[in-house]
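task queued by scheduler; priority normal; single chain, no ligands, no partner chains; default sampling; output format set to structure tokens
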Amino acid sequence: MKNITVNIGNIKISNKLPFVLFGGMNVLEKYDTIMQVCEYYVSITQKLNIPYIFKASFDKANRTSIHSYRGPGLESGLRLFQILKKKFGVKLMTDVHEINQAQIISEVVDVIQLPAFLARQTDLIKAIAQTGSVVNIKKPQYMSPEQVQYIVNKFHFFKNNKIILCERGTMFGYNDLIVDILGLHKMQHVSKGCPIIVDVTHALQTRQPYSAVSEGKNRLQIFDLAKASIAVGIAGLFIEAHPDPDNAKCDGPIALPLYQLPCFLNKIKLLDTLVKSF
């Protein structure tokens, strides 16, 4: 099967290369927490020699509840991203929800994420594509693996082929998600070799019927989902961690406790090396 290599600065991402970690926190919080999280990720990934991109949102425009924390906003978010790049020399990824955000964000951030629920919005795709940035497409929860080719085709139409595809779960009845591991290679096939990553955080979301908050009972399955995904040979993982998940501003119940990252990543790296040695 064909494999495309996408370059994020000096980081190369492909389904045949050692896995790349897209990790961070769901949304930018207070300054000290952001610095703590990024520094910890950078330290661990450098020790383990894992290519790393820091991820956080500046505005969670898609929160379920009108009362939920959204983030610091575009202007403050950009300043925080600039500080992270200068202080840690780290590559960055964030999501955009509006057309006018794309070009501004591309001047600071290395990878622009297209949110799952907006992944068919042609005008937003055009705006993101025309920045020339690397793009991470979150596969919509309602979409089959084969249908992602039409999102990829839109980016190609607008002259951007620097595409990463991210599996984040598929609707499984109401208020639940399931990950089709066999669909990962289907996505790779229909996209003609795009790097595939799996979001092992949001794919574990469940909710009670009348709740706007994610449940945390599936947090213990993050490692299981990561192992299953890496075992079929993919380009990377997307994960969110927090020093105090139960008090995180967004999706804390499904975030990995920060202190668990070293053990988690060490095991995943061993498995990835084994799988790609065949």
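post-processing summary
- The mean pLDDT is 95.
- The helical segments are 31-48, 74-88, 102-106, 122-129, 148-157, 183-190, 222-231, 261-275.
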